[in-house]
Design a protein that fits this description.
alpha+beta; OB fold (Dihydrolipoamide Acetyltransferase, E2P); 6-stranded mixed β-sheet; 4-stranded antiparallel β-sheet; globular
């Protein structure tokens, strides 16, 4: 059955988008996850992927054309399928906003409410799509209450997506008349988030009714289910926390960041904010030993079995989905090489004597990989189903471990940047990743990814390819090794790297040649400065 794709809201202030490029033509086969189009919003140019398999039967507007949010973008179905009814039902109609505003006290009948396009109602704020993979968001905190005056640019709420916790700013001035979800609840992209307008002049009830029955917000009335009750054996477990049974610890993003820096366990605190939410003052006033002790022995039940079910975060669900698809759809093969690091160690020491920013070994690896990709474009590529896309630019993703899982900030045009520039950008992106402040353009667009576990004393490992890349480089620790020399035996420093390749787009010989070039740069780092 044919499926309609509407223009998504790709930023919190987006009202329309321009088609920067179509990657499929009408009649082309389309696979789930393939790139359909590039959409230019008011903040960035984002890639739009297909969410189903089929044939592209219709496009709503040609390249360069402009569409409003929730206008018909494309139709995907079976070849030859009749889509005339979908074209009629999805024809844009004049916005009924003036009628809603001019009759604030007259409720709109259900049939009329169903016809309201909330994306065109100025007072309505819908849940924005804050990342390319976001399907829903959790309200971490509201910074305004119903009835409060809101000014343009003020922070309305903190939204937890699958990749970061982001501040949502108001794009207009008015009174907060309604909120669509409470703190801790999940709300789907394009569902009713809140209503901001002039008190007494907006028919809030009719807009809420339209949100509950309208096509633009199918998930607005389905907040996340409350956490399951703990099993009967739970009280006998040897671990007791103040948030046992809660879906997540309630704390502001700033409090989480400060707590992480101070090494404070948030489970040991009682929040003084709304609903027991932990705020910055709670961290500042915390004295070790005065809060709730997170680990309490149970002497009368020392051998009692128990467990704790931890609900998946948004990020963990997306990691499981995307890496599962990568592992089971892309035929991986692996190439491991040992690299001598004596010269790299020496070069880094000399460089840090003059550089204003401390350069890490990972920064050297990023630079070596970026330069190697320019010489081996077959590695800097993506499998597109019916073709292989080779990129002229080099955007290196660097995997960063955070509390909820893993995120990959992207160093763009890494081949054209100096080592100090790479070092400064890498540190800034890592810091923003750990505080969940990355913007969409900072974690999208990678053409190759590096995952480094050397700092955790891992000698070697294999990594799962990070879509849409064709390869990922797993980096182990630098260790001393004994070697034979002309005078007997000596000690050298070596590092093992493993390249995971998608065999659909990369051959073994191409991957091996790429690693040889990376090895050449790291064993003779002066070549990176020529």
């Amino acid at each position: 059955m044919a499926e309609v794709i509407l223009m998504p809201r790709l930023s919190d202030t987006m009202t329309e988008g321009v088609i920067a490029a179509w990657h499929k033509n009408v009649g082309d086969p389309v696979r789930k996850g393939e790139l359909l189009a590039e959409v230019e919003t008011d903040k960035a140019t984002m890639e739009l992927e297909s969410n189903k398999d089929g044939t592209l039967l219709h496009i709503g507007i040609e390249k360069g054309g402009k569409l409003q949010v929730n206008d018909l973008l494309a139709i995907i179905g079976q070849a030859g399928e009749d889509i005339s009814s979908l074209l009629i039902n999805n024809t844009p109609s004049p916005s009924p906003v003036p009628e809603v505003q001019s009759h604030p006290t007259a409720p709109i009948p259900t049939a009329a409410a169903a016809s309201i396009d909330l994306s065109k109602v100025e007072e309505v704020v819908l849940m924005p799509r804050l990342s390319d993979t976001m399907e829903s968001g959790i309200i971490s905190a509201w910074h305004k209450n119903v009835g409060d005056l809101v000014k343009k640019g003020e922070i309305l709420a903190d939204i937890e997506t699958d990749k970061a916790t982001m501040d949502l700013e108001s794009y207009k001035t008015g009174t907060l008349l309604h909120i669509g979800a409470q703190t801790g609840e999940k709300i789907a992209v394009n569902a009713l988030l809140c209503i901001i307008g002039e008190s007494g002049k907006v028919d809030v009830n009719s807009l809420v009714k339209a949100a509950s029955i309208g096509p633009a917000t199918p998930a607005a009335s389905t907040p996340s289910a409350p956490p399951a009750a703990a099993p009967a054996a739970a009280p006998a477990t040897t671990i007791s926390t103040p948030t046992a049974g809660d879906e997540r610890i309630k704390a502001s993003p700033l409090a989480k960041k400060i707590a992480q820096g101070k090494g404070v366990d948030l489970r040991a605190l009682h929040g003084s904010g709304d609903g027991g939410r932990i705020i910055k003052a709670d961290i500042d006033n915390y004295q070790p030993g005065t809060g709730v002790t997170p680990f309490v022995s149970a002497p009368t039940a020392q051998f009692t079995e128990g467990f704790t079910d931890i609900p998946n975060s948004q990020m963990r669900n997306v990691i499981a989905k995307r890496l599962g698809e990568s592992k089971f759809s892309a035929p991986h093969f692996y190439l491991t090489m040992e690299i001598g690091m004596d010269q790299a160690i020496s070069a880094r020491t000399q460089l840090n004597e003059v550089s204003q920013v401390k350069v890490s070994f990972n920064d050297l690896i990023v630079k070596a990989v970026a330069l190697s990709l320019k010489k081996h474009p077959a590695i800097n590529a993506s499998w597109m189903g019916d073709k292989i896309r080779r990129y002229a630019h080099v955007h290196i993703g660097v995997a960063v471990a955070i509390e909820d899982g893993l995120i990959v900030p992207v160093i763009r045009f890494a081949d054209q940047k100096t080592l100090p520039q790479i070092a400064a950008e890498s540190k800034e992106l890592a810091s923003k990743a750990k505080s969940k402040k990355l913007q969409p353009q900072e974690f999208t667009g990678n053409t190759f990814t590096i995952s480094n576990l050397g700092m955790m004393d891992i000698e070697e490992f294999t990594a799962i390819i990070n879509p849409p890349d064709s390869c990922i480089l797993a980096v182990g620790r630098i260790k001393e090794a004994v070697i034979r020399t002309d005078n007997g035996f000596g000690v050298t420093n070596v590092m093992k790297v493993t390249l995971s390749c998608d065999h659909r787009s990369v051959d073994g010989a191409s991957g091996a040649a790429f690693l040889q070039t990376v090895k050449k740069y790291l064993e003779n780092p002066l070549q990176m400065f020529i």
